[in-house]
Amino acid sequence: AQSVTQLDSHVSVSEGTPVLLRCNYSSSYSPSLFWYVQHPNKGLQLLLKYTSAATLVKGINGFEAEFKKSETSFHLTKPSAHMSDAAEYFCVVRSRYSTLTFGKGTMLLVSP
Amino acid sequence: SQTIHQWPATLVQPVGSPLSLECTVEGTSNPNLYWYRQAAGRGLQLLFYSVGIGQISSEVPQNLSASRPQDRQFILSSKKLLLSDSGFYLCAWRSGGLNSPLHFGNGTRLTVT
């Protein structure tokens, strides 16, 4: 079985400060991991994915995530938040059988 | 390039009425297609997926059904809506192997009154 835990339901930052959205996973096999972003009443957009290549993955809009097998984590970071980053973020794990498991989401709030 | 269209964007329906949400994909052939539902605070729940025309797998027993009449068309239906069917419905597609990501439509906000 696999599971995803997003450790914070809400994260608040000021514009220009770093962003950290935490995700822990469990999987019986080497997983593929993804981060998606969802703006209000919109579909989900892929930010980045990890598929057993480099452990530090760079995505769109300046986001990146590091796969740490020893910690079973895949935290999403960005050096400097922008107002347009305010959205809900989902961590997703996919098993070898292609079953997707979504985290419950983290709402990122960015204040000026 | 590939695009996914999902409509309508918003829908308000009374309890007991039928439902039909449509999703089409362009620019790819034989995609895997998915319907997800997103309820507040619960993340995404996979409802149905399809690996080909007429092939539908249901993940959760419910009041809904899905059909795939054409390669790039995926329809979500209900004969009689329940209040609990309210939510945000997302269509998604994937092709290119096990490591390819999902691509989502813009979603339909369904409110059952």
Give structural notes.
- The complex is a heterodimer of chains A (112) and B (113).
- Chain A is an all-beta fold.
- Chain A contains no helices and twelve strands.
- In chain A, a hairpin with a 5-residue loop joins strand 5 (32-38) and strand 6.
- The mean pLDDT of chain A is 89.
- Helices cover 0% and strands 57% of the residues of chain B.
- Chain B is mainly beta and 113 residues long.
- The chains are: A mainly beta (112), B mainly beta (113).
- The A-B interface holds A 9, 32, 34, 36, 41-46, 49, 51, 90, 94, 96, 98, 100, 102-105 and B 4, 6, 9, 41-44, 46, 88, 90, 92, 98-99, 101-107, 109.
Write the topology of this structure:
The complex is a heterodimer of chains A (112) and B (113).
Chain A: E1 3-6, E2 10-14, E3 19-21, E4 23-26, E5 32-38, E6 44-50, E7 56-58, E8 64-68, E9 73-78, E10 87-94, E11 100-102, E12 106-111
Parallel strand pairs in A: 2-12
Antiparallel strand pairs in A: 1-4, 3-9, 5-6, 5-10, 7-8, 8-9, 10-11, 10-12
Chain B: E1 3-7, E2 10-13, E3 19-26, E4 32-38, E5 44-52, E6 55-58, E7 65-70, E8 73-78, E9 87-94, E10 103-104, E11 108-112
N-to-C order of helices and strands of chain A:
EEEEEEEEEEEE
Q: Calculate the mean pLDDT score of chain B and round it.
A: 88
Radius of gyration of chain A: 13 Å
Helix segment tally of chain B: 0
Average pLDDT reading of chain A: 89
Residue windows where pLDDT falls under 50 for at least 5 positions of chain A: none
Most extensive interface: A-B, 21 and 21 residues
SS content category of chain B: mainly beta
Distance between the termini of chain B: 38 Å
Beta strand % of chain B? over 45%
Number of helices of chain A: 0
Largest sheet of chain A, described in full?
6 strands, mixed
Global morphology of chain A:
globular
Number of strands of chain A: 12
Kindly, what is the distance between the CA atoms of the first and last residues of chain A, rounded to a whole number of angstroms?
41 Å
Helix fraction of chain A by DSSP (H/I, runs of at least 4): under 10%
What share of residues of chain B is helical? under 10%
Strand content of chain A: over 45%
Overall shape of chain B: it is: globular
This entry's quaternary arrangement is: heterodimer
DSSP, total strands of chain B: 11
